[in-house]
TrEMBL record, chain A:
The keyword RNA-binding does not apply. Pfam families: Ald_Xan_dh_C, MoCoBD_1, MoCoBD_2. SUPFAM superfamilies: CO dehydrogenase molybdoprotein N-domain-like, Molybdenum cofactor-binding domain. The lineage of its organism: Bacteria, Bacillati, Actinomycetota, Actinomycetes, Micromonosporales. Residues 23-126 form the Aldehyde oxidase/xanthine dehydrogenase a/b hammerhead domain. Keywords: Molybdenum, Oxidoreductase. The keyword Oxidoreductase applies. This is Xanthine dehydrogenase family protein molybdopterin-binding subunit. It comes from Micromonospora tarensis. It comes from the Bacteria.
TrEMBL record, chain B:
PANTHER family: OXIDOREDUCTASE (PTHR42659:SF1), XANTHINE DEHYDROGENASE SUBUNIT C-RELATED (PTHR42659). PROSITE patterns: FAD_PCMH. This is Xanthine dehydrogenase family protein subunit M. Residues 1-222 form the FAD-binding PCMH-type domain. The lineage of its organism: Bacteria, Bacillati, Actinomycetota, Actinomycetes, Micromonosporales.
Length: 702, 329
């Protein structure tokens, strides 16, 4: 694999679509102009598990402006095994809020009102939605989930953890938990579906047009070429728009029921809480054994989380642990409980965000138990090679990040004693935690490059820009791959009319798509040199190439690392928590665009604060649904909650990860923030909070 | 959304007459709460009578030294009014601690007082709620009630009133002026909102068709040094866990007069009468403030999930009064 020389890469280019977005010219899915649209509104189940015994649509159907009411009686039969996609296929209800009927009408107001008039009777059964109830003595309900990525097996074991714990001079053995988090992208899930004789066209807010195309084609027994998916701009996704969900299939079904009419469907905020996935709650036990010098002899991390009975989804919360610290005895174990809940899904840094809260809180507890500075503890346990894979790291700069962060944050002056600093009624503390995320490359991308004789290049790939700046960064990659200027590149994304692409996820966008573009550029230059004497022929030249395999995968372990610092203030009398200062230093390989990369990392750190202090989907165990299902009640950090946030990175030159030398910046910003804040809260107050979110009632003096 | 009629009258009496003939109609102020509730099918008016431009949008000085706030004054305008900021700073602080800039631009003073509880079950028509549908039961008592009431609850309802403005008005002994089918009334703010009792569907003592036309603030010299403290789960744009509106008049270490009201703890803004009585005429100090707060909160009957509000309310009241002792903010 050859690396490309950075010329455009590394430049802080403004977003190519920035001006259009600010001026409202960039069109999002729901804004695509269509003629004579109809509108869809779903009816959701009011029981968590049971059977529909009757549906009365007469009142709804009789409303002026109602075009059709869909139920499992009249909905088209689908061909899919994906339980979340099997909308209106049977009388069974598997979670509260599942779609049990839908109204298509002339306006969204009519559809919504008519939906409220559909009467559904149920034979409810006893439901189980409580993950906590699964923990003590109910292990028969728990099982090891299927692997998400073969690279990272769900269970790992080396040495003898129990024996090492028994003989360890210092031990930490604690249980940590994280709540049910909901994505809440600003742009809700939206679809415009339209059928013609050729097939189905979907304008959609999604992270992967190719994946949606495949899912919809299968469900409707179509050839993928009969499904076109278009998603030029996306207003936030965070994992919730990777996989097709019921809303997409329902919109396509509805459009088929009203031939010739495009059907528009935008979920309400409340609906997104039950229909678009979430980060599953976790209950994690971490055991650390160490000598009195802080050198780890045992690391064990076990996590229990939930999935639905419709479909398995396991967030791999213990995935990061084997990559972090040296210890001869190590284990990780991951279980899922199948509950009567909607299926969880990917959310920013799936696994690492929740798992590293537990591990890095435990590391802080170990540092205190050993009387060591938490940074020194991590330095003492820095591994020479990847502890699980026994491979060298392609690059690993965790210690550099910690030291650089300590210097910039002013860590050295820190008095480790809890409750040592106080200012006007506020207790002040600081905390640190490590961050990591693997360098991943998703399969299934192709890029086409069309060179024309005027020196311009059209670069076509069905990737999407979910608001991260992909369009800009990938243009910079293409320019360098083609040894051209950014102005010569015409990058086209977000449409299945272009070559297929992996979804935007796993911080793997630039790696997966960029590698395909580099491969196509390589071949283009070779063809030009060997067949055309180095000049583009008058009718142009077109090359398509796949994302190649990375030959170094078997030789190196590939991860990004980072260090998160936080300063918190806790009010002595009210328990109110403020975070005036966050600082992150990251080692993520080459930074393609410092401007958009900084926004990614900063956004991740802000969300980390939100995850630590504010966010929590509150489940009502009796009804089985999230009760705080709107943005007034589901708190996301407000601007006033975010203090000074500093983002820094270490220059890394990693020739093994991909031709660009990039490692991805999408996820790592959120990783470790919750632990850094919890550690700072402990330092401020002497109170260790192991259950997120950290709210004032947990810190309120009695 | 259900179909409804929209009317705009040219006089307040015209508006009152329109609504008197529509038993399921409602007045529309800024609409920041009502329209949301209509979308959620919680509020189902068949007629909206728009009164936003009908009532006064002015803040005027009264001859007795008090201030009259027109019902149509926006929250933004009221919060920024120089008279209010100088004489009743807690009122301005209360407004600015609520909602967002955009919502405050739209929301009216009268509408703010008549917003409905943000109890999650009240806002979700798929769950039982005595306030929304009397007789169906209260989902909150054994459900999610972290934000809900600790004082004056009933077996039927533990909702809180969400207004911050109302808490400051109650502390200031404000009165609301109404015009209704039975004529004009003057209602003290302390009596406008009700405790839930067996009829939690009734938030206030207003009768159908009563239109709030103005809010009068009596003169209160020591309110020039007053303070509104709001405790919430995030720094901005959140409803209160607990609020305290307070003003205190201390001469030579002795409390000559004091006004205290709590928000976020009851179905109505909670005037701390007991605490005020205990403090009036006695020495001003942390111990006295604490004893007064404890006396006021002795009747608190919190639920499992909101017991923290009792110490939180106590500590917040003590801290607020101590900060007022330290001088004008």
């Amino acid at each position: 694999m050859s690396t490309i020389t950075p010329r455009a890469m590394g430049q802080a280019l403004d977003r190519l679509d920035g001006a259009d977005k600010v001026r409202g010219l960039a069109r999002y899915a729901f804004e695509h102009p269509v003629d004579h649209p109809a509108y869809l509104f779903p009816v959701q189940s009011t029981v968590a598990v049971g059977r529909i015994t009757g549906i009365d649509c007469s009142q709804a159907s009789g409303q002026p402006g109602v075009l059709a009411v869909l139920t499992y009686h009249n909905a088209p039969r689908l061909s899919t095994e994906d339980g979340e996609l099997r909308v209106l296929q049977s009388d069974e209800v598997a979670f509260r809020g599942q779609i049990v009927a839908a109204v298509i009408a002339e306006t969204s107001e009519i559809a919504r009102h008519a939906a409220s008039l559909v009467r559904v009777d149920y034979e409810g059964r006893t439901h189980n939605v409580d993950l906590r109830a699964e923990v003590p003595g109910h292990r028969e309900h728990l099982r090891v989930p299927n692997e998400v990525l073969p690279l990272f097996p769900m269970d790992t074991a080396e040495g003898d953890v129990d024996a090492a714990m028994a003989s360890a001079a210092v031990r930490v053995d604690e249980v940590y938990s994280t709540p049910w988090y909901t994505h809440n992208a600003l742009e809700p899930h939206t679809t415009i579906a339209c059928w013609t004789e050729e097939g189905c066209t979907l304008h959609l807010s999604t992270q992967g047009v190719t994946g949606i195309q495949a899912g919809v084609a299968q469900a409707f027994r179509l050839d993928p070429s009969q499904v076109r998916v278009i998603s030029p701009h996306v207003g936030g996704a965070f994992g919730s728009k990777v996989y097709p969900r019921a809303d997409v299939v329902l919109a396509a079904m509805a459009a088929r029921s009203v031939p010739g009419r495009p059907v528009k469907f935008a979920l309400t905020r409340q609906q997104t809480f039950s229909l678009t996935g979430y980060r599953p709650p976790t209950i994690q036990r971490v055991r650390l054994g160490a000598g009195s010098d802080g050198r780890l002899t045992a690391i064990d991390h076990r996590s229990i989380e939930q999935t639905s009975k419709l479909k398995e989804f396991a967030e791999h919360s213990t995935r990061a642990t084997p990559s972090m610290y040296a210890a001869p005895n190590r284990g990780t174990q991951q279980w899922v409980a199948e509950l009567d809940v909607p299926t969880p899904t990917i959310m920013r840094a799936p696994g690492e965000a929740s798992g590293m809260f537990a591990l890095e809180s435990a590391m802080d507890e170990l540092a205190i138990a050993c009387g060591l500075d938490p940074i020194e503890l991590r330095i003492r346990n820095e591994p020479d090679t990847h502890p699980q894979f026994h491979l060298p790291f392609s690059s690993r700069n965790l210690i550099t990040c910690l030291r650089e962060g300590a210097r910039r944050f002013g860590w050295e002056q820190r008095d480790p004693t809890p409750r040592a600093r106080r200012e006007g009624g506020w207790l002040i503390g600081t905390g640190v935690a490590a961050a990591t995320y693997p360098v991943l490359r998703l399969p299934g991308s192709k890029a086409t490059i069309r060179a024309d004789a005027n020196g311009r290049y059209a670069v076509l790939i069905a990737a999407v820009d979910i608001g991260t700046g992909t369009r800009t960064a990938l243009t910079q990659v293409a320019a360098d791959a083609l040894q051209a200027d950014v102005e010569q590149i015409d990058l086209r994304l977000g449409d299945t009319a272009y070559p297929p692409a992996a979804e935007e996820g796993a911080s793997a966008g630039i790696t997966s798509w960029g590698a395909a573009i580099c491969a196509a550029a390589d071949q283009l230059r070779q063809r030009l040199a060997t067949e055309h004497g180095g000049t583009v022929p008058a009718d142009g030249l077109e090359i398509t190439a796949d994302t190649p395999e990375n030959e170094y995968l078997k030789q190196y372990a590939m991860h990004s690392f980072g260090a998160q610092f936080a300063e918190v203030r806790v009010h002595e009398e009210t328990g109110e928590i403020r975070v005036p200062r966050q600082l992150g230093v990251f080692a993520c390989g080459r930074i393609v665009n410092p401007k958009t990369a900084r926004s990614q990392l900063l956004g991740g750190m802000a969300w980390g604060l939100s995850m630590s202090l504010h966010e929590q989907s509150v489940l009502d165990l009796r009804f089985g649904h999230v009760v705080n299902h709107d943005l007034a009640q589901y708190h996301i950090s407000s601007n006033a909650d975010i203090g000074a946030v500093e983002v820094h990175w270490i220059e890394e030159d990693d020739p093994y990860v991909n031709p660009m030398g990039t490692k991805g910046v999408g996820e790592i910003g959120i990783v470790g923030v919750a632990a850094a804040i919890a550690n700072a809260v402990y330092h401020a107050t002497g109170i260790r909070i192991r259950d997120l979110p950290i709210t004032l009632d947990k810190l309120l003096p009695g | 959304m259900r179909t409804f009629r929209y009317e705009r009258a040219s006089t307040t009496s015209g508006a009152v007459a329109l609504l008197a003939e529509a038993p399921h109609g409602a007045f529309l102020g800024g609409g920041t709460n009502l329209v949301d509730l209509m979308k959620l099918d919680v509020a189902r008016p068949d007629l909206l009578v728009d009164v936003r431009r009908l009532t006064s949008d002015r803040v005027e000085e009264l001859s007795n030294g008090g201030v009259r706030i027109g019902a149509g004054v926006s929250n933004s305008q009221l919060a920024a009014d120089p008279l209010i900021r100088r004489r009743y700073p807690m009122l301005s602080q209360a407004l600015l601690s609520g909602a967002s800039g955009q919502l405050r631009n739209l929301a009216t003073a009268a509408g703010n007082l008549l917003q409905r509880t943000r109890c999650p079950y009240f806002q979700d028509v798929t769950t039982p709620c005595n306030k929304r549908e009397p007789g169906t039961g209260c989902s909150a008592i054994e459900g999610h009630h972290r934000d809900l009431a600790i004082l004056g609850t009933s077996p039927e309802c533990v909702a809180t009133h969400p207004s911050d403005l109302a808490v400051a008005l109650v502390a200031l002994d404000a009165v609301v002026r109404t015009e209704g089918p039975d004529g004009e009334r003057v209602i003290p703010m302390t009596e406008l909102h009700r405790l839930p009792g067996p009829e939690p569907q009734r938030d206030t003592v207003l009768r159908h068709g009563d239109l709030i036309t103005a809010i009068d603030l009596p003169p209160l010299a020591f309110a020039a040094c007053s303070y509104f403290r709001k405790i919430r789960d995030r720094a901005s744009y959140a409803f209160a866990l607990v609020t305290v509106a307070a003003a205190i008049d201390v001469v030579d270490g002795v409390v000559r007069d004091v006004r205290i009201a709590f928000g976020g703890v009851a179905h109505k803004p909670w005037r701390a009468i007991k605490a005020e009585e205990l403090l009036r005429g006695g020495p001003a100090g942390e111990d006295q403030f604490r004893r007064a707060a404890e006396a006021e909160l002795a009747d608190a009957r919190p639920l499992a999930g909101n017991a923290f509000k009792v110490p939180l309310a106590r500590n917040t009241m003590v801290r607020t009064l101590l900060e007022l002792l330290e001088g004008p903010r």
